[in-house]
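Thread: quick sanity check before group meeting

JM: Hey all, I'm pulling together slides for Thursday and realized we never actually wrote out the predicted structure for the chain we discussed last week. Dropping the sequence here so it's in one place. If anyone has concerns about the input, flag it before I start.
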Amino acid sequence: MRRLAPLLALFFVTPAFAEPLDCAVIKSTTRPFEITFDWTATRKDKEPLAVQMHRQVIRKADETVVYEFFSPAKFTRRASNPNGFRMQVRSSGEAATAARVSTYSIDVTKDYFALGKPFDFKEIVKGEDGAVVADMDTAVSFDGAVNVDVGGCSYALTKIIEVSHGSVRGKAGSNRIETWYSRDLKTPLYTRNEDGDGPVMEMRARDISTSFKPVE
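JM (edit): ok, ran it. Output follows.
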């Protein structure tokens, strides 16, 4: 039960004035939606930082595109293939051709995440000029499932743990990401990111809406 403690807060953060969602539609169609998150960062010897952020999710047949906003004009755009592997990343202000592109040591047309069994892979991220931006070895494991209510709908979530070691822009490092992932929504509703000996960042879903101004 202890491992579920951070996630249980999801049951209590949906505001009373949230718009009613058609649960069947949002879970079984490709209708875009936006999630409001409570984002916190905890650093050693510093006061925790807490803000709200937004994530727009556009589900398509051949990819899922996610925009994450900390302010209306600044975002990070991530595109994943149908099996949940990140393929491209770029920031606001960058041209589409400037996206960082990922390649993998495994066949990412295979839905490894659906199997629920541990696996590992190497991911190499290259920039527009072909230079290596990141070279990471990642081990993936699974640690249970739970149903959670957000925005008036219940979602089945799987706990996925990714532990990575390698280099980013020439700097060696390690990273541990714990997510509670919804296959219906194709996005996590809770994320905990431990960046080596650096800050611990957490994101908890507060609300889900289908009424928003999309980037695309």
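AS: nice. Helices lie at 5-8, 23-28, 112-115. Residues 23-28 form the longest helix (6 residues).
JM: adding both to the slides.
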